[in-house]
Design brief:
Elements (H helix, E strand, L loop, with lengths): L10 H6 L1 H27 L6 H4 L15 H26 L3 E4 L4 E8 L2 E8 L7 E4 L8 E2 L6
Antiparallel strand pairs: 1-2, 2-3, 3-4, 4-5
C-alpha cells in the first residue's frame, strides 16, 4: 500500500477499537474539563494563557503584569502539562486510523467501502457499538443504520 492510499475499515475492525477509544475519550473529556476550570481561574486572575500556548509554545507568559504570583505560575505550568497530555491523547486516538470529527462529544468516523463506494462508519462516545454510517458529504446529520450496509 502506498503512503497516500486510504485505509479502509470493516465494521468488525471499527468495533474492535471501541474499548480503547472509550478509555481515550473518557480521559480527553476529563482533561478538557480540568483545562476549562483552570483556564477560568487563570482568566479571573488576569493571566489567561494565550492562544499560542494551545498550539504548542513551550513558554507560557501572562497576558498582563510582569510579576506573576507563585500560585498563578503553578497553575500556568499545570495548564501547559494538561494541554500536552490532551494533545498526546488525541494523537493516540488518531493512531487507531479513525477520523476525529468532534473531540468535545467523542465523534469519530472510519473510512469504509460498500460495493466499491467510499462511506464513513460513524460512532459517538457513549454508543455501545458502531451502529451508523453516512456518505462522505452528509456527515452526522445523514447517519443511517449499519444494517443497511448488509448484503
Amino acid at each position: 500500500m502506498e503512503p497516500d492510499d486510504p485505509q479502509y475499515f470493516t465494521l468488525a475492525h471499527a468495533n474492535s477499537q471501541l474499548a480503547l477509544l472509550r478509555d481515550l475519550f473518557e480521559r480527553v473529556m476529563q482533561l478538557r474539563a480540568q483545562l476549562k476550570t483552570l483556564y477560568g481561574r487563570l482568566e479571573n486572575a488576569g493571566h489567561a494563557p494565550r492562544e499560542e500556548h494551545l498550539r504548542g509554545s513551550s513558554a507560557i507568559t501572562p497576558r498582563r503584569k510582569p510579576e506573576v504570583p507563585a500560585d498563578v505560575q503553578h497553575d500556568l505550568v499545570v495548564f501547559r502539562g494538561l494541554v500536552e497530555t490532551l494533545r498526546e491523547q488525541v494523537d493516540e486516538i488518531q493512531t487507531t486510523g479513525c477520523i476525529i470529527k468532534d473531540i468535545e462529544v467523542g465523534l469519530v468516523d472510519w473510512l469504509a467501502l460498500h460495493h466499491g463506494r467510499e462511506v464513513l462508519l460513524c460512532w459517538k462516545y457513549g454508543e455501545r457499538e458502531v451502529g451508523w454510517w453516512h456518505d462522505l458529504e452528509t456527515g452526522f446529520a445523514g447517519r443511517r443504520p449499519v444494517s443497511e450496509l448488509d448484503d
